[in-house]
Design brief:
Distance between the termini: 105 Å
Radius of gyration: 36 Å
CATH class of the largest domain: Alpha Beta
Number of strands: 11
Strand content: 5-15%
Helix content: 40-55%
Shape: elongated
CATH architecture of the largest domain: 2-Layer Sandwich
Length: 494
């Protein structure tokens, strides 16, 4: 028969549950009870029941603490909790721990008899699982894979369990652990029990390799089965951790190293330890930033861009994590903005309205994109400062040429801004400053002027409408009349 125990701080509840249910017809026998948590734990240890029915609130060890103890030591025991209070946080945690169900007091015969089939089903399921487990004992490598995957998913909470499994499975003592994360699958030479064992895990677009090392590995390319010279994969090498501690940290470090490799677009191995050693930027860095700010204060565009190029060269020559590059570049941009605002250099108070570089920069995936992006930002800011520049900004000239060629297409401000490699907000501001008219009004004027020329040549109004970028005659007619004062037909007929 299945053994069950009942725990509740009210003896009358225990007695009622024992007597009002015919447990024998379910092949269950009540073998013990307790009114406080500490006694309940002793009963569980001594009797090792199949089923526990327990109140959440009890003197001493409460129901949740008891369940945590049971799940850890006797995971095969099936638990049910009940309470007279609507303690949803307790209930949620209890269900998360794996209890079969939660019952609200008062507990009736109907509630218990509805619940018993669930309990029996859970016990049967556990029996089948244990049977399969004993029939197919996991191999050494399979157990390592499972332990490593659990560690990566559950984090530090699973680390102790993982270390225990390694101790049980390893023939030799593990000297160190290193995690590598690759953009592509790699093939490794087979390690020996005295050198290393490698476990491959696959998560979405990452291939993770956990190296359990029983001796020192001096170079990963030497134990790679693939041809190193033709390697196209980008591989991040995490920090090597002594013994078994810190595997999760090694994995997180390998992700940072992988991101750096993808950022610089260079295949091969990228070590996080090398990135760490290159965290500090030269003393020239501070000087260059000062020169950039001084050049902007003097409205000296060429000098400012010269020092921006030097700044990028300093960044370029360092093995810096992408996150650090982002942080330093954003720092520079905000220092420039601070200079502009402090010295009131902007042509318009709206220069930085809706400007969110910290959001835009997150979309950048490579170092080359980052360099172009920073140069564009500085150029855009400078364009909003130089009061004496009579020539059109190169980006505006390029935009005008683009509009001339594509006025018959539905070209948007964002599309043109992207074409000239400029932030849309800056482009809109700069266009109006340079042209004396907004982007939308300018495009409209181009189209209407083109239309007037075509109408003067006698072309059909409907054909003209399409040829200048208006896909409905009605819309074209409304815009034309608003701009010219008469309808396209009247204009054509002169």
């Amino acid at each position: 028969m299945l053994k069950a125990v009942i725990f509740d701080d009210a003896p009358i509840v225990i007695k009622g549950l024992q007597e009002m249910i015919d447990w024998s017809k379910y092949n269950i026998i009540i073998v013990g009870s307790a009114t406080d948590g500490n006694t309940a734990m002793k009963v569980v240890n001594d009797l090792q029941p199949d089923i526990i029915l327990t109140d959440i609130r009890k003197p001493g060890l409460d129901g949740l603490q008891l369940i945590e103890f049971v799940v850890d030591i006797f995971p095969e025991i099936t638990c049910v909790v009940f309470s007279g209070f609507k303690e949803y946080d307790y209930v949620k945690k209890a269900l998360k721990l794996g209890v079969v169900d939660y019952l609200e007091k008062p507990i009736t015969i109907e509630k218990i008899e509805e619940l018993i089939p669930q309990i029996l089903a859970k016990i049967e399921e556990q029996k089948q699982y244990n049977s399969l487990k004993s029939q197919s004992k996991l191999s050494y490598k399979e157990q390592l894979e499972r332990a490593a995957m659990e560690l990566l998913f559950k984090g530090y909470n699973a680390e102790q369990k993982w270390k225990n499994i390694i101790d049980q499975l390893s023939e030799f003592e593990v000297q160190s652990v290193t995690v590598l994360t690759s953009s592509e699958r790699l093939n490794w030479k087979e390690g020996t029990p005295s050198t290393y064992s490698v476990i491959e895990l696959h998560l979405e677009d990452q291939f993770i390799y956990v190296f359990y090392k029983f001796s020192v590995i001096t170079s990963y390319d030497r134990i790679l089965e693939d041809d190193v010279d033709s390697l196209e994969a980008i591989v991040g090498v995490g920090t090597t951790m002594e013994k078994k501690e810190g595997t999760l940290k090694s994995y997180n470090d390998s992700l940072k190293a992988l991101r750096y490799g993808q950022y610089v677009a260079e295949p091969g191995f990228h070590s996080y330890d090398e990135l760490k050693r290159s965290l500090y930027i030269s003393e020239d860095y501070v000087t260059v930033i000062k020169e950039i700010r001084d050049s902007i204060s003097e409205l000296n565009r060429d000098r400012a861009l010269l020092y921006v190029a030097k700044y990028l060269n300093i960044i370029d020559n360092k093995l810096l994590e992408p996150d650090i590059v982002e942080r330093e570049i954003l720092k520079l941009i905000y220092l420039v903005i601070e200079t502009v605002q402090a010295k009131e250099l902007a042509r318009s108070e709206y220069l930085f309205m809706n400007y969110i570089p910290h959001v835009e920069i997150k979309e950048i995936k490579s170092k080359s994109e980052m360099k172009i992006w920073l140069k564009t930002q500085i150029e855009g800011i400078l364009a909003g400062l130089d009061r004496n520049n009579k020539d059109k900004h190169p980006c505006i000239q390029k935009a005008i040429q683009f509009i001339e060629k594509n006025f018959n297409q539905p070209i948007t401000l964002n599309e043109v801004a992207e074409y000239v490699d400029m932030n849309a907000t800056y482009f809109s501001y700069l266009f109006k400053e340079e042209m004396g008219i907004s982007y939308i009004k300018y495009v409209t004027e181009v189209r209407i002027n083109k239309a007037k020329t075509m109408l003067e040549k006698g072309e059909k109004v409907t054909d003209v409408s399409e040829q200048v970028g208006y896909h409905t005659y009605r819309h074209f007619s409304e815009v034309f009349k608003k701009k010219v004062g008469i309808s396209p037909g009247q204009y054509k007929n002169g």
